[in-house]
Amino acid sequence: MLSLGVLTAVGPFSLDTYLPAFPAIASDLQTGRETVQLSLTACLIGLAFGQLLVGPWGDRIGRKTPLLVGSVGFLLASIGCAIAPSIEFFITVRFIQGLAGAAGLVMARAIVRDISSGRSAAALYSQLAIVSGLAPVVAPLLGAVGVAFFSWRGVFLGLAVLGAILTVMVATFVPETHHPKFHPIGVLSSSLRAFGLVLADRAFSGYVVLSGLTAAILFTYIASSSFVLQGTYGATAAQFAAAFAANGLGIALFARVNARLAPVHGPARMLRIGVALQFAGTAVLCVFVLLRVDLGEFRVLGLATVLFLAIAPLGFNLPNIMTICMGQSGGHAGTASALLGVITFLSGAIFTPISGLGDPALSMALIMGGASLLSIAAVLILKRRILLQEH
User: Fold this and answer.
1) What's residue 145's pLDDT?
2) CB crowding 198-213: b at 16 or more within 10 Å, else e
3) At what angle do helices 2-16 and 152-173 cross, to 10 degrees?
4) Which end of the chain is more exposed for a tag (fewer CB within 10 A), N or C?
5) Domains of the chain and any CATH numbers
6) This model's pTM is above 0.85
7) Amino acid 365: pLDDT
8) What does the pLDDT read at residue 179?
């Protein structure tokens, strides 16, 4: 589980660690900040398409080989970023880094599905969700330290060290968990057939939609929170960092509680509780923003508290949606994991720019509230399937 946790952290670390280094990269490579931001887009595209490639590949040949290839690729790509002579080279290698990092995201979820199911799987996915909640908080802080004491190139050398550690951990501690009887025959045709078989399951497709709505809430918050807290509500950089960290810890705390409760009450029931809590939290957020509630000197604390109520339940929803989806995957856990990952990043790509339209606070509240309301509708539609999953 420690190895799987590190694998899960690769995605957030590859995305978030170098964010504090944007000005230094722009200066050193003699380019604009907007061009440097393209490297983030390139990494996101690599993570999305990499999951589509790795998922069926892992179902076909097993989990360990894709993990080793991905770990070594992440190591080499990180070194390439550290020695990049130009912005064009840097953007290209960032795409490769995302492509390689996708292996850890997909295979970690698939391995949990291989070794567990039902309520025990919910506990394991919750442990991975703790890492997912903490990694985006820790990564920028480590990146800021790296830039301050070394340079932006030192940040990527640090990621290369992470890649080396990951390679050793995969080679030493991660066994092959995929049973040979599930290996499809063929290459492209079997991959397309696997995607078709997984998506043909109406229950799985419904949970995938629910996963996309949950991702919309998360990415809208990530994209908008800085502008809302600092720009609209006047929070300082330190106050914003504290609020962002508190919400990350909230996700981790809820995931920890879910790890204890889901094996007892079942992932489906915990999902219903989480969706209800999130709807309540986003409803309070909408009221807070629409009524322009002003608490004077406590206005930043008030908004931060409301955001916590809206974001922390993700610690329930993310692992339980994953548990139920992967439980529907049959012998195509890698493919199912890839589809979940791609939907997550596509949802982020769609809702991130939309959240920037108009008043940032209003856009954030309405998107999060609307996605939460649709999540309630999705759970009601899937109620019969969820009850069957519990039994």
Assistant:
1) 80
2) beebebbebbbbbbbb
3) 160
4) C
5) 2-174 (1.20.1250.20), 198-390 (1.20.1250.20)
6) no
7) 93
8) 64
